[in-house]
Amino acid sequence: MGQGHEPRPLRPRLTNVPGLADDGLSFEEIVSDPHEPHAAPHRTPITLGSKVQVVFTSFDPGVYAVNPLDMSTILNTPGESVALGTGGSDFDKTVIFGADTAAPGFDPQMHQHHLSFYLRDTTGVHSDSQVYTLALHVVPAPGVIATAGLGLLAAARRRR
């Protein structure tokens, strides 16, 4: 994630993933129309048959990714990867990112939590991409905000 991008929000989820999660980041290959709004002249098409995967290089404590093909597989170790698709198949995969707030070393006071990854073609036709860093931030549950607000209100009343 380059400079100037806002961190992706992590919110409580009703799925089987621990802690907080983001709706996901989509990785897609657009092969249907070169005039598609997402198409850009600087993008190189993925060679037909190339096998593309995302390879994770680092995770802050508690931060993880979920394999979109197996929602029970939590990825949080550098070197782990997820298959995204085969060149020419017009793939579109969404990887869910999250933070387990109960994990050892997770610091809820940190404003941002990070993970890094790059894209790899396992057939070796294309070179590895640059390393991208995804910044995540925790959005408290509405009940937490309300409780904090009530606490501040009570403290202000005591001072009067």
List the helices and strands and how they pair.
Blueprint: E1 8-12, E2 20-21, E3 25-28, E4 51-59, E5 63-66, E6 74-75, E7 81-86, E8 92-99, E9 113-121, E10 132-138, H1 142-159
Parallel strand pairs: 1-10
Antiparallel strand pairs: 1-2, 2-8, 3-8, 4-7, 4-9, 5-6, 5-8, 9-10
Description:
With 160 residues, the protein is mainly beta. It has one domain (8-159). It contains one helix and ten strands; from the N terminus they run E-E-E-E-E-E-E-E-E-E-H. Strands 1, 2, 3, 4, 5, 6, 7, 8, 9 and 10 form a ten-stranded mixed beta sheet that branches. Strand 5 (63-66) and strand 6 form a beta hairpin. It starts with 7 loop residues before the first strand and ends with a helix.
